[in-house]
């Protein structure tokens, strides 16, 4: 059993390469560098600002609380005598001065019985009230509480004789915190902008040279090995550019050597092929030519009976026809034109060919031809005339491989995005030692064959971007197949 | 109107409003009003244990209060803002007019006024012939009975015209007057013995009594007319009983009246003014 793998078309490689060269902006080094720097700035500055704001918030809160406590303590001392003496004028003066202190929202003095002796709220003075709070509040306050309420009991000889209440507004505190937070956000924004600009400049300096190298690589991909990059920078990219130029130079020298070697080998193969072909032609035409020459020599004798003369004439005619067939096949093989590919439904083409050969009177009755087409349409880019030649040669080969009769199956089956064409016979099979040679010119297992049929098929299929695969088992049959890309 | 004037006007309105509110406020507690003989803090330390005991006895709070001055105190007495008062005999004769009646008096040394000088001061004895002119004398308040009224009467009996012989300074309280003497702001001060005793030792060491007036009835405790009779009896009993228990001794010690209180009659004070 033998299998010949398919080659990947060169056009597809170029298309894939072109696709891979079109980078999304988000996938670029520039974007990633800018994003990285921006993220680092945002995270670091955010953490720093958060820490600073938290620290400052705690400091401002503590300062407000300490100031409130100091103020209430001072008020307690300042109002003790006035409270005991019910000196309302002095208490009012203390309250008035207290109210002028920054952030003071209210201030109040009550005696031991809960009578308000002095307050920033005149309506409360003289009233007996429930104390505003039983205990001083501490920071942080409840969300909607904008006043820090503080209480300082006034004690004389270990007894409570009254209490001082002071409310410290957190309005300025919140404004200071908001200002600090806004400043922090501004700093983050500035850091982001500056960092991103720096990252952009850095990435621009780096990727500009990389772009030049990418363009050079594209030109090399297109076959231009004369291209060089002109990068003078002394950094890693400069080193890479110099190494790149050196690599391209080396590639160019190697390519030149390979090309020369290829030309030499091609020339040698061509000469060898010509020699082999000449030998094959000579071998093929020598036998019929010898038969003709011998027949002519015999016919020139005087004593040749008429019956022998007629037989010799028949031999000469038959051998001449054989010579003509050999020359026609050889001309066909040598003159296969370039394929003119067009989108075509090859199923009708196949049916027509099978029909034509089925109606050939020379077809042995013992050979049955079956056609299996597993698709409504079998569209592919093919040269119709050449593909008809392919079908013809493969089917004829199958028929000729079954001199004692048999079944010939012609099948077309879609396989993904490709079409598989298979011709199978139940003939005697191809010997193993000939299996890898049958597509060469003038190699045949039949005495009357020219050995050019499969060679012509292989050449046409190669021009269609595919190859013939042959699987054969002795006394079981042979299966030849190829695949075409669906249109 | 300038802002400060506006503030002053507002403060005055507030004060008047507050005073009116206090006068009209109904109370479920008693107020013990003590004449501002000394600083409010010192008076509070003296009288608050007594107020606590009174509260326990009466079953309702008793609030200790004093006043910024003798005049303010007497205005509140006139308005009957205090339920229980402690004052000097002279002012008691005024308080009688507003319905207060004495129920007890301090059972202690005779109620006298004293004249105190610095040991190193210019006055060493109270002899009108040897007193230089231009001396300064300090009093707590014009109405301070022992410290001012009694000492001035006594000096007049010696032939010393206080108004002519001295530059008079009032310092609102006994303590302030004594501290003024100690500090050299005045050369002689009129006061009474309890106040001198309450001075720190280093102050007392620099001072000495140069003269003492004849005695008068002791400082009374009086109650407002209209107080429930059972409460008046309880207050009286408590005051008279203070010297008998451990707790009472602690109260008396804080007051500085180690002999406690004895019953007082209104008639004892009738002759004070005269």
Question: Describe it for me?
Answer:
Chain A is α+β, with helices and mostly antiparallel strands and 487 residues long. In chain A, 55% of the residues lie in helices and 16% in strands. Chain A folds into 2 domains: 9-222, PAS domain (Beta-Lactamase); 338-485, Heat Shock Protein 90, CATH 3.30.565. Chain A has helices at 10-21, 29-84, 88-99, 171-221, 236-299, 306-334, 346-358, 384-400, 432-435, 453-463; strands at 104-111, 116-119, 147-156, 159-169, 342-345, 367-373, 379-382, 406-415, 418-425, 469-473, 477-485. In chain A, the strands form 3 sheets. Chain A has a 5-stranded mixed sheet with strand order 6-8-9-11-10. In chain A, α2 packs antiparallel against α3 (88-99), α2 (29-84) packs antiparallel against α4 and α8 (384-400) runs antiparallel to α10. The two termini of chain A are 31 Å apart. By secondary structure, chain B is an alpha/beta fold. In chain B, 43% of the residues lie in helices and 19% in strands. Chain B has helices spanning 3-24, 40-58, 70-78, 89-95, 145-157, 162-165, 174-183, 193-198, 201-204, 229-241, 246-255; strands at residues 30-34, 62-65, 84-86, 100-106, 114-118, 135-139, 166-170, 188-191, 207-212, 220-224, 261-263. In chain B, the strands form 2 sheets. A 6-stranded mixed sheet of chain B has the order 2-1-3-10-4-11, with helices on both faces. In chain B, strands 7-6-8-5-9 form a 5-stranded mixed sheet, sandwiched between helices. Chain A binds chain B through residues 80-90, 92-93, 96, 111-113, 115, 117-118, 122, 125-128, 156-157, 159, 161, and chain B through 7, 11, 13-15, 17-22, 25, 27, 29, 36, 39-41, 43-45, 48-49, 52, 61, 63-68, 72, 76, 254.
Task: Profile the largest sheet of chain A.
Answer: 5 strands, mixed
Q: Which regions of chain A contain 5 or more consecutive residues with pLDDT less than 50?
A: 1-15
Mean pLDDT over all positions of chain A: 85
What number of structural domains do the residues of chain A give? Answer: 2
- Using only CA atoms, what is the Rg of chain B? 20 Å
Q: Can you count the beta strands of chain A?
A: 11
């Amino acid at each position: 059993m033998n299998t010949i793998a398919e080659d990947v078309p060169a056009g597809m490689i170029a298309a894939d390469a072109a696709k891979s060269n079109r980078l999304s902006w988000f996938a670029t080094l520039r974007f990633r560098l800018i994003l990285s720097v921006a993220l680092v700035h945002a995270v670091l500055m955010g953490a720093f600002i958060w820490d600073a704001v938290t620290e400052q918030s705690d400091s401002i809160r503590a300062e407000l609380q300490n100031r409130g406590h100091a103020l209430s303590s001072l008020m307690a001392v300042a109002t003790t005598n006035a409270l005991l003496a019910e000196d309302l004028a002095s208490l009012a003066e203390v309250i008035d001065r207290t109210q002028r202190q920054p952030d003071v929202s209210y201030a109040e003095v009550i005696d031991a019985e809960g009578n308000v002796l002095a307050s920033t709220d005149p309506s409360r003075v003289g009233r007996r009230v429930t104390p505003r709070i039983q205990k001083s509040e501490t920071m942080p306050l409840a969300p909607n509480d904008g006043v820090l309420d503080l209480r300082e009991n006034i004690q004389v000889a270990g007894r409570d004789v009254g209490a001082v209440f002071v409310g410290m507004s957190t309005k300025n505190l919140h404004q200071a915190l908001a200002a600090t937070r806004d400043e922090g956000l501004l700093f983050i924004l500035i850091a982001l902008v500056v960092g991103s600009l720096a990252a952009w400049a850095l990435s621009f300096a780096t990727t500009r040279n990389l772009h030049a190298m990418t363009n050079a690589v594209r030109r090399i991909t297109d076959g231009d090995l004369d291209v060089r990059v002109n990068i003078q920078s002394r950094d890693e990219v400069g080193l890479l550019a110099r190494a790149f130029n050196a690599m391209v130079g080396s590639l160019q020298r190697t390519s030149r050597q390979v090309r020369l070697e290829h030309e030499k080998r091609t020339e040698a193969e061509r000469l060898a092929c010509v020699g082999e072909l000449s030998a094959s032609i000579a071998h093929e035409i020598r036998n019929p030519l010898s038969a003709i020459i011998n027949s002519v020599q015999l016919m020139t004798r005087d004593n040749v009976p008429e019956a022998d003369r007629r037989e010799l004439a028949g031999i000469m005619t038959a051998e001449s026809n054989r010579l003509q067939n050999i020359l026609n096949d050889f001309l066909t093989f040598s003159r296969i034109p370039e394929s003119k590919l067009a989108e075509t439904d090859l199923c009708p083409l196949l049916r027509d060919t099978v029909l034509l050969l089925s109606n050939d009177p020379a077809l042995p009755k013992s050979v049955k031809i079956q056609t299996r087409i597993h698709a409504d349409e079998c569209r592919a880019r093919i040269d119709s005339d050449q593909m008809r030649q392919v079908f013809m040669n493969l089917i004829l080969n199958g028929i000729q491989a079954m001199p004692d009769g048999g079944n010939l199956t012609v099948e077309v089956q879609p396989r993904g995005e490709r079409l598989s064409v298979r011709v199978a016979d139940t003939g005697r099979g191809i010997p193993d030692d000939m299996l890898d040679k049958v597509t060469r010119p003038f190699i045949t297992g039949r005495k009357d064959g020219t050995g050019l049929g499969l060679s012509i098929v292989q050449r046409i299929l190669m021009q269609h971007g595919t190859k013939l695969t042959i699987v054969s088992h002795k006394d079981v049959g042979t299966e030849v197949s190829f695949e075409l890309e669906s249109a | 109107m300038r802002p400060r004037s506006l503030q002053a006007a507002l403060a005055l309105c507030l004060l008047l409003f507050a005073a009116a509110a206090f006068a009209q406020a109904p109370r479920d507690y008693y107020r013990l009003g003590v004449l501002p003989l000394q600083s409010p803090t010192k008076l509070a330390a003296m009288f608050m244990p007594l107020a606590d005991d009174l509260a326990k006895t009466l079953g309702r709070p008793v609030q200790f209060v004093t006043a910024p001055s003798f005049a303010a105190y007497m205005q509140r007495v006139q308005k009957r803002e205090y339920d229980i008062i402690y004052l000097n005999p002279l002012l008691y004769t005024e308080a009688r007019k507003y319905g207060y009646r004495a129920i007890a008096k301090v059972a202690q040394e005779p109620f006298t006024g004293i004249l105190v000088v610095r040991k190193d001061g210019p006055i060493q004895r109270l002899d009108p012939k040897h007193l230089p002119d231009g001396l300064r004398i300090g009093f707590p308040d014009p109405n301070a009975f022992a410290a001012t009224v009694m000492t001035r009467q006594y000096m007049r009996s010696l032939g010393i015209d206080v108004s002519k012989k001295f530059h008079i300074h009032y310092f609102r309280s006994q303590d302030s007057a004594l501290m003024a003497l100690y500090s050299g702001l005045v050369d002689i001060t009129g006061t009474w013995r309890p106040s001198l005793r309450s001075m720190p030792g280093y102050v007392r060491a620099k001072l000495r009594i140069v003269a003492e007036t004849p005695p008068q009835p002791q400082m009374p405790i009086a109650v407002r007319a209209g107080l429930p009779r059972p409460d008046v009896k309880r207050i009286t009993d408590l005051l008279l009983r203070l010297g008998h228990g451990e707790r009472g001794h602690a109260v008396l010690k804080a007051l500085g009246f180690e002999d406690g209180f004895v019953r007082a009659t209104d008639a004892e004070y009738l002759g004070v003014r005269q």
